[in-house]
Amino acid sequence: MLRRRDAEIQHGSNPWPLYIVLLVSLYGCRPDEPNTRFEAYLRRTGSTQSVAPADELKAPPLVGDLQLHIPLVTLDTLDLVRLSGCSVQATLGKRYSSLGRQAKPSQRLLLELEYLRRAPSCTDLLRKDHTKLASALEAAWRNRQQQLPALIFNATLASDEYRSFWLPTSAPGDYPPVSQALVVSALTQINQHICRWLHGDYQAQNRDFEVLLSQVAGGDAGALLQAFFLRSRGPGTVDPAIGRLHTMLTRIGILEERLSPVLPLQYLQWMDAHNGQMPAADPAHHREHIAYSHPPCSIK
Predict the structure, then answer these.
(1) pLDDT of residue 235
(2) What is the distance between the alpha carbons of residues 1 and 104, in angstroms, rounded to a whole number?
(3) Cα angle vertex 166, ends 220, 54, to 5°?
(4) Is 221 exposed, middle or buried (0-12, 13-18, 19+ CB in 10 A)?
(5) What's residue 224's pLDDT?
(6) H-state helical runs in the chain
(7) Which of 178, 180, 169 is closest to 57 using CA atoms?
(8) Does residue 280 register a pLDDT over 70?
(9) For the chain, first and last CA: distance in Å?
(10) How far apart are CA 189 and CA 251, in angstroms?
(11) d(CA 252, CA 186)
C-alpha cells in the first residue's frame, strides 16, 4: 500500500495546551477523580473562540524516526526443541522466523501478546524437569511485559496508520476514508484493548486489531486541523466541526497519557506543537465530554 506524501506544513510558535490531556483521568484504567484540573482549564480559557496564533502547521514525524528500538531476547535452538508439547513453541517459531523478524510493529505486538498468554503454562510444565529452561522462559516473559508499553507505542502512535490519521491529504491507493463515528469507535476500542493489556489481560483478536488500525488511518484529523489552521488566518469564527475534531483527539490524548513513560522526545515535541495549533472550542462543548466514561478497560 502506498504511503502518503509528506505535506510541506510547518508548526506554530505559541503552543496552546490541549484540553484532552486534562481529561485523561476521567477515562479508562483509573478511578474517577475530581474535575479540578478541568475546571482550572475552563477558568483560564474563559470564552475563547479562536485558534491560538501560529505561523506554520507541523507535519507528524516520519514513522522510522519514531519507532523505539526493542531488543529481541531469543532462546537457543536446542531450547526451542525442548519446548515440544508447549503451545508457546509455535509462537517463538513464528517470532524467530525471517518473516517474524521483519514483522510490522502491530504484528510484532500481537506475537508478543501471544507469548505473554502462552508462556506461563509452559513455564509451570517445565519447572520440574527443566529448571534452567523454565527460568529462561520466565525471564523472557518478564522482559516482554516490561517492553509492552514500547511495543504498543510502535504499533499505534508511531505507526503508519496513526500518522495517516494526522496527514491533511491522501495519496492515491492510501487508506480509504471512513466516517467520524467509525474512527471514534476504533480509537476507543484500541484504547480499551491497550488498557487491558497493560493490566495483564493479554487476549487479542489479531484481525480485529488490524482492522481497527486501518479505520484509524482513514480518519481526517489532519485535514480538519489544516482547515482550522487556514481559517484562523482570516476572520475568526467558530466552526461546528470543531467538536468532531476534539472528540477524536480526546481518544488520542488518553492513549498518549497511558504511554507517557515511553514517549520519545521527538514525539513529545511534535505533540506540543500540534497541541498549540488546536482551535479553542466553546467551554460548554468541553463539559459534554465529561459524560463520556466507560467502565475500566471495557470493550463495547
Answers:
(1) 62
(2) 13
(3) 105
(4) buried
(5) 86
(6) 19-23, 36-45, 63-66, 77-82, 88-96, 98-101, 105-126, 131-155, 160-166, 180-198, 206-217, 221-232, 242-258, 265-276, 283-290
(7) 169
(8) no
(9) 30
(10) 10
(11) 11
